[in-house]
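Slide 14.
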Amino acid sequence: MTGLEQDDAAVDGDGAHRSWRVFHATGTAPAGDPPVLPPAPPWREFAGEPLQTALAADDRAVRRRLGSNGPRPSLRDEEIDTVNAALLLRRPLLVTGPPGVGKSTLAHLVARELGLGRVLQWSIVSRTALRDGLYEYDSIGRAQAIAAWRAGAAPEAAEQAAEQAPYLGDFVTLGPLGSALLAYERPRVLLIDELDKSDIDLPNDLLHVLENGSYDVPELVRSALPTVSVFTDDPGGRAEIIGGRVECREFPLVVITSNGEREFPAAFRRRCLPLEMRPPTREQLVSIVLSHLRSRPEGVDTLVDDFERRVREGGTQSVDQLLNAVHMTTAGGFQADAHGRKLMELLLRDLAKGR
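Slide 15: predicted structure.
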């Protein structure tokens, strides 16, 4: 028995199974109750309220991202350990690696295996600011709604009209980060995709929110309403906010991806656990293909070998390209003649060359 197996096989005095490793990268959703996560360290405990109901994962969306729900080797042991450490310590993961290596897929893999529901995704561009991830307040829309309400309210029906006044919560929508920090019994999974594309100030702006697991919505703080129901980033979702303050109950698993286009401040990096993902092994590539196509098409091994060769020679290729190439070869009537080989070259082209 290896050291990892011995640690995972440890039991408490009453015989109950215990392990700090709850994620094993199997690619399989829990058959019954989801795994019990280890308790948070005392310095990462939060007491947000009221408790909210998390949205279940969209099975079709998960299958598009991960393929069928079945076992597959997808991560190396050291990568699995880093993910488990982030879950235990309630710290963000800073995931780096070449494009197409599966950095963003990791968030969906963890959410599926641990039954953590729908993944919240915040895609970063150069203009993205912290508030974009926290919440949006439609001040213009509310001003127009109030003006229309006042114009249509009859003086003799003031009491009735007051009940029909535009509701503040209908003009506030929490963003992906803001929704992830709501109070849930189990942590949500938040994917912050390509943070290295952000403005230089965004990583520092994130520090306070990620450290404290909370934030204020000033428009709700100033409101006379003690509790306001607002929209969330989940489709059709709403959440109750007390006193304009949002605080998590369980700190979310935050997966931050970076293509290495820039360095992040030391203060930001020390609050994250670094995870550098390497290109998949041959076994992992075959497993990914089988998971997505649910079969082993003829010629898949040849295409996997060709894909591996291109990567070894320094090419920048994405696993998506391999999936496209394999699916193309199974299309009816496709011929691997001169035209077919040219098309394969197009599908498996080096992405670093710009065309």
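Speaker note: The mean pLDDT is 85.
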